[in-house]
Write a structure and sequence with these properties.
Length: about 170
């Protein structure tokens, strides 16, 4: 299947809508669970998504459209800015940022030529705007899967003999 801009935007639009009912109002014990050292909790993942929407995806898209390969992208730093924010506040901020970013993206009325325009990632090399937008959608989907996996693993032992049928617990 080939890249489809409208379908990519559709996925990007849905991410905050999927996260909100999954996490909002849940016990803080769900927000803090992780898979061990150097792994992320649902709270950390949502903070990461906020940071990415605030400082990464659209900044890279603008950079690529304005400067092409002349000015490489920034790195993708994980900042600790949101570690003290409650989850509901992060969910609100994420929805707000995503809505604004997608409105801006739509206002650009991107052409096929613009989607094919190249930029430079500092460690990965040449990428297109299409690559960047597809990566943004897959990044969202990866983190949705991550949150679901982390939450499911809370009950690894509690499911008993059904564990062998629950592939999410084996990863």
């Amino acid at each position: 299947m080939s890249f489809d801009f409208a379908e990519t935007v559709d996925v990007l639009t849905r991410t905050p809508t999927v996260l909100d009912p999954l996490l909002r109002g849940t016990s803080p014990s769900w927000h803090a669970i992780d898979e061990g050292p150097d792994t992320w909790s649902p709270l950390a993942v949502v903070g990461h998504l906020v940071h990415a929407d605030e400082a990464v995806w659209m900044a890279r898209a603008r950079n690529l459209l304005e400067h092409g390969e002349e000015r490489p992208f920034d790195s993708f730093p994980q900042i600790a800015r949101y570690t003290d924010w409650p989850l509901d506040r992060l969910l609100d901020r994420f929805a707000e940022l995503r809505r604004a970013n997608l409105e801006t993206l739509a206002s650009w009325n991107l052409t096929e030529a613009q989607l094919a325009k190249t930029g430079r990632h500092p460690s990965l090399g040449t990428v297109t705007l299409q690559n960047l937008l597809a990566t943004w959608a897959v990044h969202d989907l990866s983190h949705l899967a991550q949150i679901s996996r982390v939450m499911a693993k809370r009950y690894t032992e509690d499911v008993g003999v059904w564990r062998e049928y629950l592939s999410i617990l084996g990863r």
